[in-house]
Amino acid sequence: MRIFILLSRIPWPLEKGDKLRAFHQIRCLSYEHEIILCALNTDRNADKQKAFKALQPYCRSVNFIDLGLWSQGVNLLKSWIAGRPLQSGYFYGSRAHRRIKNLIMEYKPDVLYGQLLRVAEYLRHSDLPKALDYQDVFSVGMLRRLEVAPWYQKPFLRTEYRRLSRYETDMFDAFDLKTIISKPDRDLIPHPGKEEIMIVPNGVDQDFFRPMNGAKETDVVFTGNMAYPPNVNAAEYLVCEIMPLVWAKRPQTKVLLAGATPDLRVRALASEKVKVSGWLDDIRHAYSGASLFIAPMRIGTGLQNKLLEAMSMQLPCITTPIANKALGGSPGKHLLVGTDATELANHILELLGQPEFSERIAKDGYSFVLENYNWEHATAKLADRLNNLAEQHNNKV
Known about the structure:
Blueprint: E1 2-7, H1 17-29, E2 34-41, H2 48-55, E3 61-66, H3 69-82, H4 86-89, H5 94-107, E4 111-115, H6 120-123, E5 130-135, H7 138-148, H8 154-174, E6 177-180, H9 183-186, E7 198-199, E8 218-223, H10 229-247, E9 255-258, H11 264-267, E10 274-278, H12 284-288, E11 290-295, H13 305-312, E12 317-319, H14 321-327, E13 336-337, H15 341-353, H16 355-372, H17 375-396
Parallel strand pairs: 1-2, 1-4, 2-3, 4-5, 5-6, 6-7, 8-9, 8-11, 9-10, 11-12, 12-13
């Protein structure tokens, strides 16, 4: 089967969740199928040569389409006027659309597979069998941002939320197969037929993210793309609300905020007790050098890959109900879950003060991830469904 995969970003390096999911799905699908990759690019600093080298072993054809600043501005304006979400407009370009059509005509794929609502506009009218990976629910993520945003951002975020909600429903009917990362996310899709959506969970590279011995240079670590609003919010929550409660009882506790492109608000959190690392060539050192991992998520949707990575490295983990809902871990066994700053602070103190308890949580969490989150297993189910779509289409022709 020949699969045309369309992405809103080049899936390399793997510092963002959508890139991580795309890369490993491409890798696993390539075992038995032919991949034609087309990735949009809005990053002026992207190292396309390195990305091509990383992706080429898995693809028959690798294509990057740059979206210019001028065309992006024009298309954002067009989307706004047309009532479409800016998440769609930012990644849409008429020249890019023509090139995508030409690539599809040239390679004649058996099935089209687009990742995220951002690329749906390019594929929605194609006569070929097509699948859309919602991944997570953009409208709900926007609603959660709206709840904590300053007043002057609320009118814009409220409008974008409404448009995303409508668009998610519209795209449901435009695609033959819909996929999403978890059942809790599927339940949030605003469409009466949402039960049709196929759940394709993420995995974790268990050969790469494995237990490592290393000196514990910090106590608490939080990782992620530090320009992503939910991570920025979580970093501020950790340093400004959770850690003061920890420091009141354990003043020597150190925190590491590790991840690419830290926002100004994240950089402002740096102090003698808080290190903001920025990009790390090997994020595993952030995990192995810490005593525990925390993901104090309050907004956003989807499965937190950072939790999978930390648990796969046998690090005891703490998170919030909103993140654990997609993960599905058992609180108190696989990880600790706190609903507010006090509970999260107490969990930190508990793990730092009770080594045997910390070790048990780490080992049980490690076993849980190894048993439930495997890229090959999850992607094999996706491949079967895509193959069925292609066969059904060929039988009709």
